Amino acid sequence: MFNTGSSGNLNKVTIMKRILVTGGAGFLGSHLCDRLIKRGDDVLCLDNYFTGTKSNIQHLLNNPNFELIRHDVIDPIHLEVDQIFNLACPASPVHYQYNPVKTIKTSVMGAINMLGLAKRVKARILQASTSEVYGDPDQHPQPESYWGNVNPIGIRSCYDEGKRVAETLCFDYYRQNKVDIRVLRIFNTYGPRLNPDDGRVVSNFIFQALKGEDISIYGDGSQTRSFCYYKDLIDGMIKLMDHDNFTGPMNLGNPGEFTIKELAEKIIQLTGSTSKLIYLDLPLDDPKQRQPDITLAKKMLGWEPRIKLEDGLKETIEYFKGLL
Ligand code: NAD
Ligand code: UDP
């Protein structure tokens, strides 16, 4: 597809990519659609609205370069595209444990369908994988070479193992059919458009703090996570997709590591809330620590996160204030 730009000047002709974003109405998917549209691409956003919402992409609906498809990735679909970002999958423990069999189907059959499509139309495909492939890691921080410590039969397994099989499928399609794959392992990412009901820690704590409710810490709050702001993550995701010759897997995330208790205290401080911390049972198999080793991303993409936790949280708090 060709785009002559607003001037119509043929000297400015650029090749416009047609890009499929599955899970495009979700938190990360909708921000990705925004960035691709801004860059001048033709975007097909595919979603079944399980955890995503039309309101996340409402502002794009009148854009002639944006198209919305209601579809479930567990069913095959035929489309002509140059690139596929396969993000469709619930990401929060509450949502992916709601219907675990469906979660596995989404990861595994979704990957088979999208890899099959990539093979047929010779598109490049980026699979949104996760730090959960490392499970409850006994190597810290986690480099891509670490194979992980995942419980195959626990309540998180539908997500963790589904994502691990999706990675396996990517590499088998690559070896067997030369599909042009990019495997991205995303560490905890937060920001505006997180689904307020999905139970993830940043959205839960901000909502509780803004409403003056108790802050629900699971366990003693000593478990750690590394939080990346969505803007940094989307930058890296697009860079990996546009890298000409690198399959991954590649970690992307912010190496700044915080305990969950530290996160709660920071959110209380930034919101000026009077909320108190309460301690509830730790969910089964909750990883004790998580921190990305991003040496590879720095070397291959020249990427590292720029936005500090405090700055990202301030923007996210403003967004959630608007929802209340
Ligand atoms: P999200 O829940 O906001 O977005 C997921 C989107 O996929 C939603 O719009 C949902 O409706 C859609 N979806 C779910 N099942 C589908 C299906 N069967 N068919 C079509 N669409 C379907 O979550 P997110 O945080 O934006 O995550 C996006 C991707 O990134 C996911 O694959 C997730 O596993 C991965 N990821 C996210 C994080 C994070 O911290 N945000 C971390 C690791 C990996
Ligand atoms: N968590 C918490 N209170 C909440 C929600 C989550 O203490 O209200 C903890 C959770 O047990 C985990 C961490 O915060 O240790 C991150 O949880 P989240 O669901 O955001 O992501 P994940 O566990 O998948 O990293």
Supply database-style keywords.
single chain, about 325 residues, alpha/beta, Rossmann fold, seven-stranded parallel β-sheet, 9 helices, about 35% helix, globular, binds nicotinamide-adenine-dinucleotide, binds uridine-5'-diphosphate
Low-confidence stretches: 1-13
Largest sheet: 7 strands, parallel
What is the helical fraction, as a range of percent?
Answer: 25-40%
Beta-strand percentage range: 15-25%
| H/E element order | EEEHEEEHHEHEEHEEEHEEHEHH
Strand pairing plus helix content: what structural class? alpha/beta
**Quick one: how many beta strands?**
15
Write the layout of secondary structure elements.
Layout: E1 2-3, E2 14-15, E3 18-22, H1 27-39, E4 42-47, E5 66-70, E6 83-86, H2 93-96, H3 100-121, E7 124-130, H4 157-177, E8 180-186, E9 189-190, H5 201-211, E10 215-218, E11 224-226, E12 228-229, H6 230-242, E13 250-252, E14 257-259, H7 260-271, E15 277-280, H8 295-301, H9 309-323
Parallel strand pairs: 3-4, 3-6, 4-5, 6-7, 7-8, 8-13, 9-12, 10-15
Antiparallel strand pairs: 1-2, 11-14
Helix pairs in contact: 1-6, 3-4, 5-7, 5-9, 7-9
The structure holds nicotinamide-adenine-dinucleotide and uridine-5'-diphosphate.
Residues 92-93, 188, 199-201, 204, 216-218, 223, 225, 260, 283, 286 line the site of uridine-5'-diphosphate (UDP).
What does the model show?
- By secondary structure, the chain is an alpha/beta fold.
- It has a domain at 17-190 and 228-254 and 291-306: NAD(P)-binding Rossmann-like Domain (Rossmann fold), CATH 3.40.50.
- The chain contains nine helices and 15 strands.
- It has helices at 27-39, 93-96, 100-121, 157-177, 201-211, 230-242, 260-271, 295-301, 309-323, and strands at residues 2-3, 14-15, 18-22, 42-47, 66-70, 83-86, 124-130, 180-186, 189-190, 215-218, 224-226, 228-229, 250-252, 257-259, 277-280.
- It has a seven-stranded parallel beta sheet with strand order 5-4-3-6-7-8-13, with helices on both faces.
- Helix 5 runs parallel beside helix 7 and helix 7 (260-271) crosses helix 9 (309-323).
- It is globular, with a radius of gyration of 19 Å.
- Nicotinamide-adenine-dinucleotide is lined by residues 22-23, 25-29, 47-52, 72-74, 87-91, 106, 110, 128, 130, 186, 188-189, 195.
